[in-house]
Every structure is written in C-alpha cells, then in structure tokens.
Design brief:
By secondary structure, the protein is α+β, with helices and mostly antiparallel strands. It is built from eleven helices and twelve strands. The chain has two domains: 3-173 and 309-316, Ribosomal Protein S5, domain 2 (2-Layer Sandwich); 179-306, GHMP kinase, C-terminal domain (Alpha-Beta Plaits). The strands form two sheets. Strands 1, 2, 3, 4, 5, 6, 8 and 12 form an eight-stranded mixed β-sheet that branches. The chain has a four-stranded antiparallel β-sheet with strand order 9-10-7-11, with helices on both faces. Helix 2 (82-94) packs parallel to helix 3 (116-132), helix 3 crosses helix 4 and helix 7 (221-229) runs antiparallel to helix 8. The longest helix is centred in the middle third of the chain and has 17 residues, at 116-132. The protein binds cytidine-5'-monophosphate (C5P).
Length: 317
C-alpha cells in the first residue's frame, strides 16, 4: 500500500473511570491483588491524536496553560508513558516498521485514581491501529490492552463493567439511565502501588484479613441491583472502596473533602480507585451542579460529569 493511502492523522477519545465499588483481596505472587470492582466510564476524556512519523514521540497538553505546565513536570514522554508503550506494542505485534507522533490532550487528572494513563493507552492502541491500517481485531486489541495494565481493557470498552481477577477480567454490568457525579480532583497525585501497599500494612497492623485474605472476590449483589435499577439512592448506600482507608491515611484532607460534599447534598462520596480523586454521587443533574458550585466556592477543584459513556472511539481521521 502506498503511503498516500494512509490517513494524515487519527483522533481517538477515551474516558476516565471511577470505581463505584472496589473490593481488594489478597496479594497474588505476581504482586497484584485480587479485586472485585465495578467501573463506570465518565464524561471526562483523554484525546489522543496519532500523526505519521518515522520514529516514536509524544507531546502532552492540558486544558489550559497551567495544567499543560503541570503535565510537563509530571508526565513522562518516554517508554514509561503507557501511551508510548501501547504504540510500540502495536508496531511490534503487527510488524509495522514506521513510527508515530502521539499528541495527548489530558482532562483526566494525572495519578488521580481515574485511569487517565490507561485511557491514553487504550486511545493510542486504537489510534495507531487505524493510522497504520494494521487491522487488529477487537479481541487482539483486548489482549494487547490487558498486557499494558489492569485498567486498559476497561478504557477500550467503557460503559459500566464488573472487573475481577486483577481488575482486568471484564464483564459488562447492566446499568440503566444516567448517574451524575461530582469529582474533586487534586493537583498532586497518589502512587497506586503505594496505596495498595498501604492497605496491606493497615490490614497487617489491624489483623483484618491479614492471615487469609481471599484470592477470589465478588461484587455485592445490591451494587449490581442499584445499577440495573438506575437508582442513585440505592447505589449510594452500597458504594465502597477498600483503598479509601489507605488513601485517607496518606492524604487526610480527603476526609474533609468527603464531608464537604455530603454537607452540600451529595448522596455519597468515595475515593475513586487509589485516589486522590473523590467521587460524589448525586441524585440529579441539578443537585450535582449545586454540589459542584458549593465545593468550588470552598476552593476545591470540582467538575460535574455523568456516566456511563462509551470507551475509546475514533472521533476523526
Ligand atoms: O496495572 P497497573 O499498572 O494499573 O497497576 C499499578 C500497580 O497497582 C501495580 O504495580 C500494583 O502495585 C497495584 N495493583 C495491585 N493489584 C491490582 C492492580 C494494581 O496491587 N489488581
């Protein structure tokens, strides 16, 4: 095929996620913990545009000059970046000999517990496959996503899904209607491995699950029923995150933030993933707007989003 037949660029959008429920079990020999989680993709997106190039390079932008400057200090542009690894994985798996320039426009906070890096990787997989016309099947994309990280397959699919195993074994969850969330983000991220280690330490100190943590877990039925019914009040009663405790121990201000959101009228608030993002569930778009402005008036960075939204999608080519 001649080079002229290739698209000039491919723009893919992938969502961030929150964990509506996150139960953490024992640590497997590979260092990963057994999980039972429910992911919901929300309307905060990463935009990745792939341009033809001879070698591999990456640039990262935020939504404004301040966030772009912050990302320049916090986001690696080399092989530590999951989007870069995704591009190279597609090339090596398909035998493609050229390169790509990836332009990443971030809205999902870095190291925020919302899977922003995983969304970048999922978007890069789809963008490179389309740019290079390498024709990977959905199953092949899934398999490559699983190799890149536990949250990457979910960013490909989006929607609402149950994750078991190490979080990468996905099954769609029935979720009706729309859920309104207010997210409070932090400029300074938390390290996912450190938060998992903090949970292990906390359990060992307190004897909880320390002797025999389960290596297989299930999502509680009430969580699935609330999602299926599209009932935020029912969901608020059973939202939970085992990583909340170590995240609060590491960052005590998160406790204040949760209380502020509840005072403002949120139904429930939990740390998302390994934090520090806090996700508040609200019962309607109007109450979410109120909670968002109340938290903003208190000096927090709050954004109103909704779920569930689709996974990585080609926007333009
Ligand atoms: O797969 P991912 O790169 O997102 O995981 C980051 C880190 O989070 C892992 O290196 C591990 O320390 C921790 N983790 C875990 N158990 C999981 C998922 C992640 O301990 N199921």
């Amino acid at each position: 095929m001649s080079l002229a037949a290739f698209p000039d660029s491919v723009h893919v959008r992938a969502p961030g996620k929150i964990n509506v429920y996150l139960g953490v079990g024992g640590r497997h020999d590979d260092g990963y913990h057994a999980l039972a989680t429910v992911f919901q993709a929300v309307s905060l997106y990463e935009d990745v545009t792939a341009y033809p190039a001879d070698d591999f390079s990456l640039s990262v932008f935020g939504t404004d000059a301040a966030s772009t400057a912050l990302f320049a200090d916090t986001v690696p542009l080399d092989d530590r970046n999951l989007a870069m690894r995704a591009a190279k994985l597609v090339a090596s798996e398909t035998g493609y000999s050229g390169g790509v320039h990836l332009e990443v426009r971030k809205s999902v906070p870095v190291a925020g517990g919302m899977g922003g890096g995983s969304a970048d990787a999922a978007a890069a997989l789809v963008a490179c496959d389309a740019l290079w016309e390498t024709g990977l099947s959905p199953q092949q994309l899934d398999e490559l996503a699983g190799r890149l990280g536990a949250d990457v397959p979910f960013a490909l699919h989006g929607g609402t899904a149950i994750g078991t195993g190490r979080g990468d074994r996905l099954n769609p969850a029935l979720a009706r209607g729309r859920f309104d969330w207010v997210l409070v983000t932090s400029d300074e991220g938390l390290s996912t491995p450190a938060i998992y280690a903090g949970l292990d330490d906390h359990r060992a100190r307190n004897g909880a699950l320390a002797d025999d943590p389960p290596l297989s877990l299930d999502v509680p039925i009430p969580v699935l029923q609330a999602l299926r019914a599209g009932d935020p009040h029912a969901l608020a009663l059973c939202m939970h995150n085992d990583l909340g405790t170590p995240a609060l121990l590491e960052r005590p201000v998160l406790d204040d933030i949760i209380n502020e959101g509840l005072e403002a009228g949120a139904l429930s608030g939990i740390v998302s993933g390994s934090g520090p993002t806090v996700a508040f569930l609200c019962d309607a778009p109007e109450s979410a707007q109120y909670v968002q402005s109340d938290l903003t008036a208190r000096g927090r960075t709050a954004v109103h989003v909704h779920g569930a939204v689709p996974g990585a999608r080609i926007i333009a080519r």
